[in-house]
Design goal:
The chain contains no helices and six strands. It has about 80 residues and is mostly beta strands. It is rod-shaped. The N and C termini lie far apart (about 55 Å). Pfam families: TSP_1 (PF00090).
Length: about 80
């Protein structure tokens, strides 16, 4: 959370606007491997979300997606 002071001109009182930082959603499920042998990749994703109706602070830190190897067994006959 980030707090930024703002001067309120009408009543000369310092007020604060609270900026809400982004929060990661949970990871999606891994995608299905497109091959059954010989090696492929699967991915999963997540989204950085900000609550509605509030000023945005810092974006989420880290990866939006991840990749992993799948079906790494050798194909028959190779």
């Amino acid at each position: 959370m980030t707090i930024i002071p703002i001067q309120c001109i009408t009543d000369r009182v310092t007020r604060f606007v609270v900026l809400v930082d982004g929060v990661w959603t949970t990871w999606s499920s891994w995608t299905t491997c497109r091959v059954t042998c010989g090696g492929g990749t699967g991915t999963r994703n997540r989204t950085c979300q900000f609550p509605p109706g509030v000023p945005h602070g810092h974006p989420c830190m880290g990866k939006v997606s991840e990749t992993r190897d799948c079906s790494t067994n050798l194909c028959p006959g190779l």
